[in-house]
């Protein structure tokens, strides 16, 4: 029986809005001074993570999903369902929206749409997000886009470190400049851009917009999602269930000391935001540190954590 955590090598993405905080804060060996994304736990074909340890060392996460489904509670489906990223937004991301599963399958031949959520790791004072809009109908939305009334159309929200934001498919959104987040999402790379601040890439070209698709998939009028975090403590581990919805359940863990006999009924995706320590399973102890990403497979029924650290953990809800 496979009885140890599966540590993963992240994949990095250069982005027009990216910076160097993935190196400066987490110590990653980033490929450029405009590295915007760390795909920490990914089986997506655009950037699959590679397994760093154990019997499956050198295998991609997608290969492990296809060949060793018992590690993932025998969950059905051709595609690994979730993707975990850390994003460094040195400048504003484009204003965008993602489709639901049906639209992605029918229009893009992709297995998943994209519902996501963000944990704000850090941000500059006064940082904000675009979250939703003020249009009451699709015709009003179209008119405001045509007239360039972005300040009137877009709804902006102030943020601070530790905030959690749930972004269901259809939500108009954008991460603002000076923000670092951990994103848990469906394993999808389908994005429709609504507005990109008229900026140009290093070739002098503006990026493609997708106004038609955006209006087709956007939630109009906007409605905030209703959810309530739940907290409890087990030994030295403070556990905050940030959200449980139809695609994923996401937790913030704060470890100070030791927590024993933690149960794992599904399989857990774990990203270390800060600190260090050890995870102990029936096969022995493995050390972890800030910036590590690992999966606790479903074959590990119980585990213990020791150290001082904070994490975002998640699992598929289906």
TrEMBL record:
Enzyme class, broadest EC rank: isomerase
Domain of life of the native organism: Bacteria
Pfam family, one: MPI_cupin_dom
GO molecular function, one term: mannose-6-phosphate isomerase activity
Catalytic activity: D-mannose 6-phosphate = D-fructose 6-phosphate
Cofactor requirements of the protein: Zn(2+)
Coiled-coil portions: none
Listed Gene3D superfamilies: Jelly Rolls
Domain Phosphomannose isomerase type I catalytic: 7-106
Keywords associated with the record: Isomerase, Metal-binding, Zinc
InterPro entries recorded: Carb_Metab_Reg_Kinase/Isom, Man6P_Isoase-1, Man6P_isomerase_Firm_short, MPI_cupin_dom, PMI_typeI_cat, RmlC-like_jellyroll, RmlC_Cupin_sf
Protein EC: 5.3.1.8
Residue ranges annotated for the Mannose-6-phosphate isomerase cupin domain, each copy included: 239-315
Cross-referenced NCBIfam families: manA
The family this protein is said to belong to: Belongs to the mannose-6-phosphate isomerase type 1 family.
Name of this chain's protein: Mannose-6-phosphate isomerase
The organism of origin for this protein: Fictibacillus fluitans
Taxonomic path: Bacteria, Bacillati, Bacillota, Bacilli, Bacillales
